[in-house]
Structures are given as structure tokens and as C-alpha cells.
Write a structure and sequence with these properties.
Elements lengths: L13 H13 L4 H16 L9
Helix pairs in contact: 1-2
């Protein structure tokens, strides 16, 4: 089984940081949540979604 061996390095790019966070969540997400994650990432790449800083 895969585990989390190291924390993600700090990113000064909020989009990159959010995508990394969502990518990690995707591994154990339900099918519905995976779809939501995909939509959020697509939105960030297209510039339609802006991640909140310091959540």
C-alpha cells in the first residue's frame, strides 16, 4: 500500500499548491469527489477558478 512519506515542498504559486493538494486528495476520493477535483483543476488551468490563499 502506498503511503505519504514526505510532505510537499512549499510553493509560492497558489495554483500549483492547490493542484498538489487536490492531486493527493484524488488518490483516496470517491468517484463523485474525483469528478469535482478534475473540474476544479480544469478550471484553474483555464483561468476560470482562482484558489484562495491562506485557507
Amino acid at each position: 500500500m502506498h503511503g505519504h512519506t514526505a510532505s510537499r515542498p512549499a510553493s509560492h504559486n497558489p495554483i500549483a499548491a492547490r493542484i498538489a493538494e487536490l492531486s493527493e486528495e484524488y488518490l483516496t476520493a470517491s468517484p463523485q469527489r474525483r469528478e469535482e477535483i478534475g473540474e476544479e483543476i480544469s478550471g484553474m488551468i483555464a483561468g476560470r477558478v482562482i484558489p484562495m490563499i491562506g485557507r
